[in-house]
Request: fold
Amino acid sequence: MSYPHMLAPLDLGFTTLKNRVLMGSMHTGLEEEKGGFDKLAAFYAERARGGVGLIVTGGISPNFRGRLAPHASQLSFPWQVARHRKITDAVQREGGKICMQLLHAGRYGYHPFSLSASAIKAPITPFKPRQMSLRQIRGTVKDYAASAKLAQKAGYDGVEVMGSEGYLLNQFLCNRTNKRRDEYGGDIAARAKFPLEVVRAIRQEVGENFIIIFRLSMLDLVEGGNDWEEVVQLAKWLEQAGVTLINTGIGWHEARIPTIATSVPRGAFAFITERLKGEVSVPLVATNRINTPEVAETILASGQADMVSMARPLLADAEFVNKAARDEAEDINICIGCNQGCLDHTFSLKRATCLVNPFACYETELKLEPVASAKRVAVIGGGPAGMASACYAAERGFKVTLFERDPELGGQFKLASKIPGKEEFKASLDYFKQRLNRLGVQLCLGEAADADRLKGFDHVLVATGVSPRVPELEGVDNPKVVTYQQVLRGDVEVGKRVVLMGAGGIGFDMGEYLSEAHESATLHPQVWLKQWGVDPDYLTGGGLTERDSTAFESAREITLMQRKSSKPGKGLGKTTGWIHRTVLKDRGVKMISGVEYLKISDAGLHIRHDDQEKVIAADTVVLCTGQESNRALVPELESRQIPYMLIGGADVAAELDAKRAIRQAAEVVACLA
Reply:
């Protein structure tokens, strides 16, 4: 067995977990959908069947004012028990255990009824909370206990009390948001009084044989956060109050330090869980960017934690644990930390899913049923859409041949993996290659398919991707003008002075790629912590320190520009866009909006901006001006009357969107007959 520590049971005294993998809490949006609990039951049951030791649901409020949004879920009434029972029955039928997370949003509530320790508005919501009265505090303690009791009646094996990420209990615990002068404000003993009352009330209500996890903010990463001595004291008090497990919380949602994006090194925050080891005797759970069995095993084997929490990796692959147990780690569909289908959806009030696994949260709606006869399917193109289409078709039982004109698979994934902070795309590409091999897909690499090659196929899926759009502009044929693909493939030399035409996702990727003066910090956790100002020695409150100025060095003088008058990068990912904007700003990349491109000459790019004509000197001008669908094969197919379907970029050439391409692949293949 390759992962003995990860797969070892964990004895909690009154119950035993079958392994050390906890599926971390993630709100899916199904909690609020009509019929959503039936879909949630299927979603969690698949993860239980996949071997995870303990599941924690998305956040459920103990009362109305604690809801994340006006129509968000709460568990406060007996009539609500039945729908939760659907989830627990489904999980337990698969031999799994599941806890319900109790989450009071506090000032993060996106509604005018929010409450907090003090009346201090959060920077991420438009609503200012009211300060909780003593009566409201006492009532909320009772609501937590009552909700936990209802969870117990619904068949949950326990609850997780959310005390981190800047939600209500965390708001009481920190001076940043707790300015009270009564018995619930002041020193750490007073600030901890409310959270500890919540835990004691829950324990009294549910008895001893019920799991209580407390998600403790061990590293607030905001000014006014707790210092290390306070974190240790809180952990000790929580143990005395009766918690079963302490889960690691990292950062507030308003913190300006990335904590789970793809650019964060794997296992970067396990050091903080390790630091608490020995201070308490209850098992500790490490979390954040643990996305492979190897990372999990290293953390557990080295004694940094007793369990590991993974949320998005189990969104990406429900069979994560089972595959690891079978020594098939190379078959795990890796979470690349992109946030596009999960957190970006959640914070946009959409149903969560996964870029690399479009079936996540759609288990009852999107299915790959076996086919009656093994018809022949040709897939043209080996990028994300093509690889996914070939895999899905082979899984259904079709005989699949994939044609790729380049000698290697990958397409846009291969290019993306070269961007600093996006190295995870290579892991995803390796997964697809392994999956294609396992499924017996015939690969024709270095071959451009034509109509003659496609004779005899029952289905033809055209996934030929995109090409960079070259604008009609005087001088665009100047030797100093190159496309982003040429740069990433290493086909051209890039000078010291660079102009990037286009400030969408591609423009920002090129800005990071060309400004990087060192090896990507994503590959070096200690360097990354210094760059973002995280203090592993925890000498200040919140674990913050001055950022390492070497992170601000740029390899080139770069100007990023766009025709739109909006803020550059406005259309980037909802939860990751700020990271990319921060990196380019730190490196001194100049950003200009509202530009009219006039021409390109040996002197550089000629523009009109603010009613003035200017020349931006450049050694290299990189075109990041959009894409066009590659459909060169389509006229030939139509002339020969060969039926085909377009998938991915060949269908729609918008911003590079692997999420849409892979989902479309699943939807199209699911309907093939």
